[in-house]
Amino acid sequence: MLLVGVWHGGLSDESVEDMANANLYVMRFLDLSLEDEVPDHSVLPRFRTRLTAANPNIAPIH
Questions:
Q1: Rounded CA separation 46/48 (Å)
Q2: In degrees to the nearest 10, what's the CA dihedral of 17, 4, 15, 12?
Q3: Which of 10, 24, 35, 49 has its CA 20 to 30 A from that of 57?
Q4: How far apart are CA 31 and CA 55, in angstroms?
Q5: What 8-state DSSP symbol labels residue 38?
Q6: Which residues, in sequence order, are CB contacts of 51 under 8 Å at separation 6+?
Q7: Can you tell me the distance from the alpha carbon of 31 to that of 37, in angstroms, rounded to the nearest whole number?
Q8: Residue 25 DSSP class
Q9: Going residue by residue through the chain (62 aa), what tens digit of pLDDT does each one get?
């Protein structure tokens, strides 16, 4: 989901969630079926925090 936001011009976390719910191409990229729940937008900041904590030499992704 993080990459989808970056690739679409830095979408907000909420917009990424909305896009994942509405766009079949994005759902397919995320390996989600129509029956799957799209992760809540709050997953993204938690993932960003864990990613930068595990790899302090990488630039923050927003």
A1: 5
A2: 120
A3: 10
A4: 25
A5: P
A6: 58, 61
A7: 11
A8: H
A9: 988 988 889 899 999 999 999 999 999 999 999 899 999 999 988 988 888 888 877 766 66
Q: Name the pTM for this structure.
A: 0.76
Contacts 24+ apart (CB under 8 A), 44-48: 44/1, 44/2, 44/5, 44/13, 44/16, 45/13, 47/2, 48/2
**What are the structure tokens assigned to 51, written together?**
């990613």
Dist CA 13 CA 57 (whole Å): 23
